[in-house]
Amino acid sequence: MAYRDEAVTVVVPTHGRPRLLERSLASVLAQTTRAHTIVVVDDLDDPATREVVERIAANSIERVKYVASLTLAGSASRSRNVGLAMVETPLVAFLDDDDEWLPGFLASTAARLGAGVDLAVSHTVLRTSLGDRPFMRLSEGLLWTMCLGNNPGLTGSNFVAQTAQLIALDGFDETLLVAEDQDLLVRYLAQGGHYRVLSEDCVIQHAGSGEHLSSPGARQVEGLRSFLDKYRDVSSIRDRRYLRAMWHAASIYPGVSRRARVYHRIMQLMNLPLDVFIGRVAARLRNEPSSDAYK
Predict the structure, then answer these.
(1) Which residues pair with 67 in a beta bridge?
(2) Alpha-carbon span 112 to 12, nearest angstrom
(3) Is 91 exposed, middle or buried (CB count within 10 Å of its CB: 0-12, 13-18, 19+)?
(4) Bridge partners, 37 (sequence order)
(5) pLDDT tens sequence across 226-254
(6) What are the tens digits of pLDDT across the range 14-24?
């Protein structure tokens, strides 16, 4: 199905990173298919962030809105849902403030929607000091039961969806501090949703942009535990082992005692599925980042 310009609203959650936000917004404004509205949801009500958004809005053809949302500060799910509630277009896309799109992202993904397909997903690359590496690679034809371990390739920056479908799903689960994008895919597929994959690298995810939601820490520990608990009764033994391994890995962060770090590292290795372990070793030998969403 062909969508004209201004058929999509872009929601950009941000958390105190105005310099990175400016780069992300520039990539939205550079799209070959223009967005109808760009909604920036700031969970800190940060003056520097507001200044960036207002300056861009004053010089852009697109409608650019700034929204301060202090409830559940730091929750990407909450920020995305606040933006989703403001969408008046048939399509919606999300972009994290430290990611960016290549110019054809909106046009190419939107072209794959229609005929019962309400979700279109692009491949991504991870940009590091060593260059770009393939990263999130969603495959066609996955069932929801196949998406309960490692994130198979959906992020908060690489998909376009029918707005009505996301609203019917109640948006993102605000109880999850991480894996909320993976959870969205699981729920979408579980309700019979269909998707298409754009096998092109149209999204750049930046490593070294500061703390990420998937960085080891108390936040990731809590988030992974919540995701594991939510799907414990329907996930496979392998998926539960993988998530437990990631939970232990996330528990190794600054401030944790040496004894606890040793314990969590041992438990991580004991729970890590063999094929994942081999894949990580192979990636390290090639000097490439792991394809796992959680390290």
Answers:
(1) 41
(2) 22
(3) buried
(4) 9, 63
(5) 999 999 999 999 999 999 999 999 999 99
(6) 999 999 999 99
With residues binned 3-state (H G I as helix, E B as strand, rest as coil), the percentages for the chain, rounded to 5, are 40, 20, 40
At 7, the amino acid letter reads A
Are 65 and 86 contacting, i.e. CB atoms less than 8 angstroms apart? Answer: yes
Q: What element of type H or E holds 114?
A: none
Residue 105, helix vs strand vs coil = helix
Closest listed residue to residue 235, CA positions, set 142, 141, 144, 145: 145
Asked if 6 contacts 76 with a C-beta cutoff of 8 angstroms, the reply is no
DSSP-assigned letters across all residues of 188-246? HHHTT-EEEEEEEEEEEEETTSS--TTSSSHHHHHHHHHHHHHHTTTS-HHHHHHHHHH
DSSP category for residue 292? -
Burial class (CB in 10 A: 0-12, 13-18, 19+), 229: exposed
**Structure tokens, 106:** 């909106």
d(CA 187, CA 197): 18
